[in-house]
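Look over both lines before class:
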Amino acid sequence: MPYKEKEIEKLYYSIGEVAQIFGVNTSHIRFWSKEFDVIKPATNKKGNRLYTMSDIENFKKIYHLVKEKGFTLKGAKVELKETKSRLKAESEYPSDFAVPQLHDNPVSIPMPEREADLEDSMVNNIMILNSLNKMKSSLLDVQKELMLLEEK
């Protein structure tokens, strides 16, 4: 049996490695670490920051919101909190968020033949997904309001 080298995932990443992953300066990483509570780097005896894979996942979310979507830092903090609240609600009441089955029988969907059609199809699917996520968020807000009214 031939030897296969296995890629080993590191437990900790230095600030330089994290900065390189995101293509930003280390000062950026240091600043985001101070600004966002979800990032909690460990430190070694020298005081160097050590980031876990969980921290890197949180950096991905922050990077996406701030650099790609154009959120302010304050807006990104609010969005992260709302996402965390939504995920908590979904885990506490999973049946409320179950996706209903629309069809018992599979539906045949024609495949686009050209690359441009495929891109259009993907864009449409993304737009539909975004709309569904907005509707889901609105329904969660309504559910929260109803729960508050029931408590009164």
